[in-house]
Amino acid sequence: METPQNEPMFTPAELDERDQTVQSVIDEMKQEEQKAHDGEESETTQSEDDTVAFDDEASRQMLSYGLGIIEMSVGAVFDLPFEIDERAGNKWLDAATPMFKKYGPSGLAWFEKYQAEVMFSLASLSLVGGCATQVRRLKKEQAELVAQEAKKEHSEENTDEATVTSEQEQPSGT
Question: What mean pLDDT is reported for the chain?
């Protein structure tokens, strides 16, 4: 190893204890990085060998289950019977099936890797949907109560008017 003329040359024996500790940590990090890199290469090779092929029918069926879940979710959120238009659903299935067939195996590996994040997102969406359903129900109940009170007040006003009118129509007996 060549060094410039005025720069002192350091050898490992001249390193103090802190420098040696830092150097050992750097060496360990390089080894871990190399192991991780080697592991990624073996996983890629293994995943290419272990891929599960989805045929058109299986892909379409799995996506159909997804559409069913969407229908149930939308119906639950809006508290209405809901069905995806058959033509629109089939059009979506026609577009999504080749993509699912192409990326399905790697998509499932991705899902497994991020399963906790996906499940948290789905749980959050369910929570928001449940809250929205409850708010709609409470607003409906509140509107019904207001309507009942208005009807009750209206009937009381009519009763009061009828009483006043009947008192006016009675002749005085003096």
Answer: 75
